[in-house]
Amino acid sequence: MAAWEVLSGAELDDCAVAAREHLDDTTLERWIRYLGNPERDHKFLQPFDELLARHASRAEAQKFADSFQQFVLGIFNDKKGMDDRNYVKLGGAKGAKDERTRQYTNLESLPIEKYYLWRDLASEPYKKDFFDFKGGVYYYGPKQISRYLAPEWREHLEALNQRLARLEKELPPQYAFLHTIEDSSKPADIRVQIRGDANNLGDVAPRRFLAILSHGERPLFHSGSGRLQLAEAIANASNPLFARVMVNRVWQHHFGQGIVRTPGNFGQLGERPTHPELLDYLAAEFVSHGWSLKWLHRRILLSAAWQLSTDYDEKDFNRDPGNRLIWRANMQQRLDIEALRDAMLSVAGNLDPKVGGPSEPLDDHNSRRTLYALISRTKLDSTLALFDYPNPNNTSDQRMVTVGPMQRLYFMNSSFVAREAKALADRLAAGQGGEAERIARAYRLLFGRAPTPAEVDLGARFLASHHEDWPQYAQVLFASTEFSSVN
Question: What is the residue-wise DSSP string for 348-402?
Fold first, then answer.
């Protein structure tokens, strides 16, 4: 009746109505919103809508409200009885959690319109936009249970919550741990799930290597789960694909692009290798040298291809503008965000060299190598995401490299960059010599070279016009393309 008074205009202030009738104001507001929206999945409140439309008397509204209340209580009782009987049919809590048991058990349910009314009143809201409230008029979650408690029990609950908060505050720091997997105590072959349906099983699939990469009859895996035997079968001299993939990834690391430019796809839909004989040669030598990555790195870095200059040749450029045939060294490769952040910490003198330990969030006070950054699968750190860190929910065969204004703005506005620029300025100020010597020392630290006379003059004029603002000058050097790239 309180909702009727507000909706009919007899009372405009729902809070005043709630206080007068000793009602919960939140529940009353939910009722008002629910009754005020005629778009419902049932017809049980149509008489109410008609009474409201013709401005019926309070007595008529009260009569409907009394009958509707009895009807709703009957539905609640029916639902509770059905839930109890279904619980028994499912065999208790274990069966209730088993999707297959639920699928093949003949469970009771309310008629559809009665179910919709029950859902709108008692279930968790299926649409939680409060301004278009649907469902759960009487539903309050565990954190809101105190509204149903008497004052003495509400005080008791509050005392328990305070004690819990105090105990949580007194807990020692959580020890480091790793999520791992282990073999089942009794590993066994499983059956094929036809079309991925766990309830539609086919023949048993024995544990063994892929048929397409095997010759003749494949031996069965019998040691534990078979994971170790699978790894040994993949990293095997008789499997030519694995060595080629490894060589291609190392080549990609050094040259920016692999011999096969789709490192995760060596199949028909992937790109053809630019140098197939070179790929085969390096793969064969890699295996013959005992799968030594150290040997592979040395072989690539001592090659003539790696030691080419970046000199431009118009004839070669016209034939191969993408440098796929490696007629010169690539001009520039942008540093990954891990190397870029570590480089700023290093030249500023703040890099923490500690090895191992738990991961930590990349806040402004974290001076550890970015290798130890805390990676969240649900909310990736904004700096990592800005500089093309791969999606941690997926496997990535290579990083995409994007260039955008937000990356430049990061060097201008980031508090972390400003902090490291200030530390770099202090490090330069601690040395001996005048302004030109400090500029030269900055270039050696950041770029590994001496500045040109024009660069010294430009830096000196900037510092003179900005009252020797060395932190800002250091921040400008951090923002340069030369610092964030390998040439």
Answer: TT--B-------B---TT--B-GGGB---SSS--HHHHHTTPPPTTS--SS----
The Cα–Cα gap between 487 and 483 comes to 10
pTM, rounded to two decimals: 0.61
Residues 382 and 388: their CA atoms lie apart, in Å, by 10
* 218, 206 contact by CB (below 8 A): no
Radius of gyration, alpha carbons of the chain: 35
- Of the candidates 181, 182, 187, the residue with the CA atom closest to the CA atom of residue 225: 187
Q: State residue 202 phi and psi, 5-degree precision.
A: -110, -145
Buried b (16+ CB within 10 A) or exposed e, 396-426: eebeeeeeeeebeebbeebebbbbbbbbbbe
391-434: per-residue pLDDT in tens?
888 888 888 888 888 888 888 989 999 999 999 999 988 877 78
Mapped onto helix, strand or coil, the DSSP state of residue 220 is strand
Do residues 362 and 417 lie in contact, with contact meaning Cβ atoms separated by under 8 Å?
no
Q: DSSP assignment of 161-197, as one string?
A: HHHHHHHHHHSPPPPP--------SS---EEEEGGG-
